[in-house]
Design brief:
The chain is mainly alpha-helical. The chain has 17 helices and three strands.
């Protein structure tokens, strides 16, 4: 059936824009009128246009939405009414519009999950499949509650990383700016003085002066190189998968930070797999939906191998043991869960362990990193200053 983008109004004069699947425009008009809306105009919307939607809603808004839906459904309020109530309560304009449309679709007889799929940039396939499993299993309240907890976990992890990285980033930015100003303005000024004095410069001073002259002449090339590097990193996953795989593998091997990255990708995998198995999603579908969640191609390769193994009648642990990204402890606990027939419970226990371990590792790493960054940058600035003043000291000593 075609999907229509429609423009409608209810008897209270409230105008609503949204999308709905219907046999034709007459069927669309009839379905809207049954729930108290009058069709103003409509047009058939292609699936490609739906995929191009760029609606953005902060994660915190989604957490509040799922928590609110849990409370309203627990109180016995029908799903469509709960969605309408949440649309009225939310202050985010994009989410308000989206929830109004979803509420109308549900009132018209559509499933919640199929209505959520109309907004793929807000509700991804994983969320929609979990809601679909909750609907079919008659367990929608618990599904919304689990989704709220899961998104809240992601929010906490991101907050820990941001909070721990603010101070080091401030130091790096400030000193990097100072170093840039020295090379572009201060070093060339000293270079002209040294040229007029016609004195023999130490090797360190000659190196610093050469860098300063390069920075002054080719500052635009440096900026372009930085921009090009950022663009390359952003596009490499889609344009050069082999290079992206090597980059993701290097991320896991970086001293200190590689440990945190490894914990994060494993945690995201077990969190998502546990959530989907608990909601009743078949294990093969759950594995396929878990790909891409961690944003790490090495982990995705392990998950893809596990999905192929399960499809062939094997066990998840048989495939994961071949991938170093999965720690031995995680693998042992997965084996225990498979043997006991309680994989969802075991995965949740692994996830709880990661929840406790990751914040500790983040704080530990950044507590060590802060003095190291400060010391390194002080040494760099000191070397530049020393290189500039060393010839002056030598000149004064020669005069005396």
């Amino acid at each position: 059936m075609p999907e229509f983008a429609y423009h409608s109004v209810n008897k209270a004069g409230h105008v609503s824009d949204g999308t709905m699947v219907a046999d034709d425009e007459l069927a669309l008009e009839r379905r809207l009128r049954e729930i108290g809306y009058w069709l103003i105009d409509s047009r058939v919307q292609s699936p490609s246009k739906r995929r191009k939607r760029t609606d953005k809603v902060p994660r915190r808004e989604l957490i509040d939405f799922f928590m609110g839906m849990t409370s309203l459904l627990t109180a016995g309020i029908p799903v469509a009414d709960a969605l309408a109530a949440m649309a009225e309560e939310t202050v985010h304009p994009a989410l308000r519009r989206i929830l109004e449309d979803i509420s109308i679709n549900v009132q018209a007889g559509n499933d919640v999950s199929s209505s959520l799929r109309n907004y793929p940039t807000v509700f991804n396939d994983q969320l929609c499949n979990l809601v679909q499993a909750g609907e079919h299993g008659g367990n929608l309240i618990n599904t919304f509650e689990d989704l709220a907890e899961h998104l809240d976990w992601i929010e906490r992890i991101m907050a820990d990383i941001k909070q721990a990285s603010i101070y080091p980033l401030m130091i790096i930015s400030a000193v990097a700016g100072l170093i840039g100003l020295m090379f572009v303005f201060v070093v060339p000024s000293f270079a002209s003085i040294f040229s007029e004095l016609d004195i023999e410069l130490p090797a360190l001073t000659r190196g610093v002066v050469a860098i300063g002259e390069f920075a002054q002449q080719f500052w635009w090339a440096i900026i372009l190189a930085i921009v090009a590097a950022v663009v390359f990193v952003r596009t490499v996953r889609s344009t050069h998968p082999a290079i992206a795989m090597q980059i993701d593998r290097m991320k896991l091997r970086i001293p200190v930070f590689g440990r945190i990255q490894s914990l994060l990708v494993q945690s995201q995998f077990v969190h998502n797999l546990a959530l989907m198995l608990k909601a009743g999603v078949p294990i093969l579908d759950a594995l396929r939906l878990s790909r891409g969640i961690s944003k790490n191609l090495v982990m995705d390769a392990a998950i893809n191998d596990a999905a192929n193994t399960v499809q062939g009648g094997g066990r998840i642990s048989d495939a994961l043991r071949e991938h170093a990204v999965v720690s031995s402890l995680t693998l042992r606990m997965i084996i225990v869960g498979e043997d006991a027939g309680r994989l969802d419970t075991t995965l949740q226990q692994i996830a709880d362990r990661f929840d406790a371990e990751i914040p500790r590792q983040i704080k530990r790493v950044f507590s060590i990193l802060e003095p190291m960054i400060t010391l390194t940058l002080v040494v760099i600035v000191g070397l530049i200053a020393g290189a500039l003043f060393l010839p002056m000291f030598a000149l004064v000593s020669g005069l005396s």
